[in-house]
């Protein structure tokens, strides 16, 4: 009997010890985070500038620079792959950035299909306690809500034109959010009172899009802004359960995009305030312990294997771009 009690006590202590170790592991941050950035279909304009190469997809370099400025490295995520590609890659990286851009959600094997794989895989990872964040900017934010809505034939977003730098109108409970609960007060003041968030979109998500698809139980709106015709759209949002975040504006453009006609906000205050968002996301990604099997494997995937092109000199809105999977000259026959 005495021996049995000793065995039970030892077993309980061992189990409790395992729980403590597990908690410690969850609190250890990964200071070598690697973030995947989803590519998207090559734009018609850029395709016309590189007809010989006939690239399949691209990533604006401003997103890469934004991630790197916050202390992470980048792996490009290609479109047009099967689910196993995304599952394997997401076991190695620490989060995914869904960038803004100008592509459609109904193109087969494109940005939206890849985004759906990523969204569903990330849900499953988080459901079993494997912390995996997603951050959507502009088009990427719209894609998050489109996927959360069930991806019906009618897209759950509206036409909404904003090509201005505007402030954020925070909701009453924004400080209860993960994104803004620790934001320094001086950053909040800039975002509230200055025209520093760069908008460049012709679609947006409004409160009615959440109400119509019963998304208010799952998503927390933290701020709004007004478009060029006074339409109030959701400017920032986050999932209440998963570490999924979305913003309608473009923090990366203030520091890294320079087309004169766009008149992006480049002031010291704009740079300072917009820096916060990627710093926040990279810190979230540090909570993921995923890694590549070796340094050599890691090196094969990194963005450093690709050379950015100076597309701004060609008239593109993007100062630099990375291009992927050239298919060769298109035949006119």
TrEMBL record:
The keyword Secreted applies. Keywords: Hydrolase, Secreted, Signal. One of its GO terms (biological process) is tetrahydrofolylpolyglutamate metabolic process. Pfam families: Peptidase_C26. Its EC number is 3.4.19.9. It comes from the Eukaryota. GO terms for molecular function: gamma-glutamyl-peptidase activity. It catalyses: (6S)-5,6,7,8-tetrahydrofolyl-(gamma-L-Glu)(n) + (n-1) H2O = (6S)-5,6,7,8-tetrahydrofolate + (n-1) L-glutamate. One of its GO terms (cellular component) is vacuole. This is folate gamma-glutamyl hydrolase. It comes from Euphydryas editha (Edith's checkerspot).
């Amino acid at each position: 009997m005495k021996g049995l009690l000793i065995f039970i006590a030892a077993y309980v202590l061992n189990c409790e010890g395992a729980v403590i170790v597990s908690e410690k592991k969850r609190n250890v941050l990964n200071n070598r985070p690697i973030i995947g950035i989803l590519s998207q279909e090559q734009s018609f304009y850029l395709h016309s500038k590189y007809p010989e190469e006939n690239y399949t997809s691209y990533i604006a370099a401003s997103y890469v620079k934004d991630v790197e400025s916050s202390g992470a490295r980048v792996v490009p995520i290609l479109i047009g792959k099967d689910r196993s590609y995304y599952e394997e890659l997401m076991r190695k990286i620490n989060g995914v950035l869904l960038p803004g851009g100008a592509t459609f959600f109904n193109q087969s094997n494109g940005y939206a299909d890849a985004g759906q794989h990523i969204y569903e895989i990330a849900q499953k990872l988080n459901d079993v306690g494997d912390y995996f964040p997603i951050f959507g900017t502009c088009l990427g934010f719209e894609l998050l809500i489109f996927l959360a809505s069930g991806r019906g034939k009618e897209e759950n977003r509206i036409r909404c034109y904003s090509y201005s730098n505007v402030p954020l109108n925070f909701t009453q409970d924004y400080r209860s959010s993960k994104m803004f609960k620790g934001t320094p007060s001086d950053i909040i003041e800039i975002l509230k009172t200055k025209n520093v968030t760069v908008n460049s979109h012709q679609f947006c998500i409004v409160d009615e899009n959440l109400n119509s698809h019963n998304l208010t139980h799952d998503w927390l709106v933290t701020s709004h802004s007004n478009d060029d015709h006074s339409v109030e759209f959701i400017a920032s949002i986050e999932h209440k359960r998963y570490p999924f975040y979305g913003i309608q504006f473009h923090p990366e453009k203030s520091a890294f995009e320079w087309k004169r006609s766009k008149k992006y906000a480049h002031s010291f205050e704009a740079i300072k305030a917009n820096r916060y968002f990627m710093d926040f996301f990279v810190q979230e990604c540090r909570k993921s312990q995923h890694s590549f099997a070796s340094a050599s494997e890691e090196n094969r995937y990194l963005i450093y294997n690709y050379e950015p092109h100076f597309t701004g000199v060609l008239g593109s809105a993007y100062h630099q771009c990375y291009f992927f999977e050239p298919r060769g000259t298109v035949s006119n026959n």
